[in-house]
Amino acid sequence: MKRHVLVMLMMVLAVIATACASDDATTDDSSEGAAVETTDAPEDDVATEEEPAEEEATEEEAATDATEDDAAAEPTEDAPVARADADLVIWADETRVQALEPFVEQFGVDNGITVALQELEFDEIRSQFSTAAPAGEGPDIIVGAHDWLGELVTNGLVAPIDLANAGEYAEVAIDAMTYDGQLYGVPYAIENIALVRNTDLVPDAPATFEELEQIALDLQSSGDVEIGLALQADAADPYHNYPLFTAFGASVFAVNDDGTYNPDELGLDTPEGLAAAEQFGAWVESGLINPSITYDVMVDSFASGNAAFAITGPWAVSQEDPPGFRAQGVNYAVSPIPSIQGGTPEPFVGVQGLMISSFSEQGLLAQTFVQDFIGTEEVQLALFEAGGRPPALLAAFDQVADDPDVQGFGESGQNGAPLPAIPEMGSVWTAWTDAYELIYDQQGTPTENFQAAADQIRNLIAEG
């Protein structure tokens, strides 16, 4: 399927694939002007959170004030996060907190203000922000994903951003952070999933998915590995299943000529979508898909050499605690998922960036921070080192383009499609997850499960 956005992505990646070797990111350890503190949010099993980090405030007086204020504001299931007592407040997950801390400190020093960096679980940021911002308790800046924009912009929660140097970023990243023709975020990373294989067990990349399945099942049958393909399936995961779904010519929504998604045309119960559903049932029956594989099992089994293949993203490669693929020393290679029955798998392409609250009373400071600090090679490389996701800033990408992991995930992303940012996507995940769960449990038929999910999704979209 031809997509305008995909063409741009391919052009960008083709240009930057020849870049030079990576340089280490540097940080400023200045200890004046900012309070950096963390607020723990409820834990979850989201696969995108990697390295735990313990952050310490660097200015004693400001840190004491911030810690006292937020000790009472620690979130529970019933209580939202409260805004820290600082001039500028940023909400981020622990991985980004670790990377941003020194830059936040320096920004405070340079501007003579206090800055609070509050830590939340990544998947808590959007919901907490949606509640806190209108009440005047939210942050000035959040770190989030581009597919949040449909909800956030529609509800008037984020402010437009005027980025003078937008041409210095990967075009797909700017496109992803643009909603209804207006930029709402400064991007720092592009991410997608790919196939990772144990090169000691499988020296050469399989030419087709059918070949992959045979190798995986043979290694599993011989006892060389316990898991042939480590694909997280507990809980069922439409995001990681998406490239396998699209290989049959299906798409979550139909795509308009301009590359945008059409929420009026759902793809789950099209002939292509139902063919994919039947194949997922066949993979469960053959043992290729194991419904008991959690994210942690996927990481541990592959990193320990007990799985031949994994389908995952750069977060599983780069995480250090618990140790991911790189930290455990397994020999691996990253490549696109091979064709399935002649069809090309298309993973979702996601972009992460910083967005400014429309309720912020520090709009100019927030604009300065996201443009002058996030838009530098130093910061983008620090975020890359922390999370393993290729930088959105082209000059920073050039610094790491020779990394084989970046190349492998980049090649996979060339086949990808942007994760829909339209609000209707919020109606998709639960019903589609439930359909996969029923297929994994072998309840009903795969076709019936996808048809029921499609009916439920249409009803939810109609209800608004």
TrEMBL record:
Acidic residues biased stretches: 40-77
Classification via InterPro entries: Maltose/Cyclodextrin-bd, SBP
Annotated Gene Ontology cellular component terms: ATP-binding cassette (ABC) transporter complex, substrate-binding subunit-containing
CDD domains for the chain: PBP2_Maltose_binding_like (cd13586)
Keywords: Signal, Sugar transport, Transport
Organism superkingdom: Bacteria
Pfam families per UniProt: SBP_bac_8
GO annotation, biological process: maltodextrin transmembrane transport; maltose transport
One annotated GO molecular function: carbohydrate transmembrane transporter activity
Name used for this protein in its record: Maltose/maltodextrin ABC transporter, substrate binding periplasmic protein MalE
Organism the protein comes from: Euzebya pacifica
